[in-house]
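Hello,

Our lab assistant flagged a job as stuck in the queue for most of the afternoon. It eventually completed. Since we weren't sure the result was trustworthy after the delay, we are filing this so someone can double-check. Below is the sequence as submitted and the structure that was eventually returned. Let us know if re-running is recommended.
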Amino acid sequence: MGITQRPQVVFFGSGPVAANSLSLLAQYADIEAVITKPSTERDMAHIAPNAPIFVADSKRSLNKIIDTQQFSSRVAVLIDYGVIVSQRVIDSFELGIINSHFSLLPQWRGADPITHAILSGQSLTGVSLMLLVAKMDEGPIIAWGEQPLTGMETTTELTDNLIHLSNDLLRVELPRYLAGDVIPQPQEKLAKKYDLSVSYSRKLTKQDGILDFTKSANQLEREIRAFVDWPKSRTTIGDRDVIITAAHAVYEANDNLPPGKITTAPREKRLKISCAEGVLYIDRLKPAGKPDMSVEAFLAGYNPSATQ
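-- returned structure --
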């Protein structure tokens, strides 16, 4: 295939990240077919109306599709699918399956690299285009791109940035890979370049969203940004259940107040919570049954004595 031709691919993916990625990919690649989970079938059909949509939410059902369909694409692209892909599915494509993974591998292999990049407080992440292998996220790298972190971004914002970085890489590297102009490199090359060690992300649980003030204020501020979509950062202020949507950490004397002690200053429009290290100043929050609001709006109708 010439490098100026539109590449043809089968796309694997499910969920909003995959849907947004497919929408961008379809602008410069021919989508022969889409394989997704039931929850995203309708979205994928809307994005790729001329491509057949196949549904598989398990390794077994995915194998069945590959066993009964003959695709002409030499390569497939996988983004955020969440289904184990067997070696026989990988081998059904002449050039394998390119997985766009949203970290600089081998850092943050696994299900949720974006959230863990924010939680760790690191200053750099990125996207790795990896050839899929049977072992989780251990395949050789076709290309990678860097994404600096400011320490201010939420998971929502970082996800959007990485979707576009991923697309920029695929736009350039997919045709080059099909033309035989790319030699996949072992992940050890990235590890050496960026001084990375192997690390693994995990799936979050609802319990992760409960703010634990025996942690440092810095750590909790990162959790609030990382969990803004889900599971959300929850606590109780007085008798009110609230979700904290924005905060900042300050390392000031907390007068030996115990972790979790809430201090309000309505005139100064401040609400702060003592932590094991430092103080967490609340900027925005969402009381149960109420819209997201500024701390000023919250304090205007808040009874400070409820914290006593």
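-- support follow-up --
The delay was a queue issue, not a problem with the job. The result is valid. DSSP finds nine helices and 15 strands in the chain. Residues 8-201 form a domain with the Rossmann fold fold (CATH 3.40.50.170).
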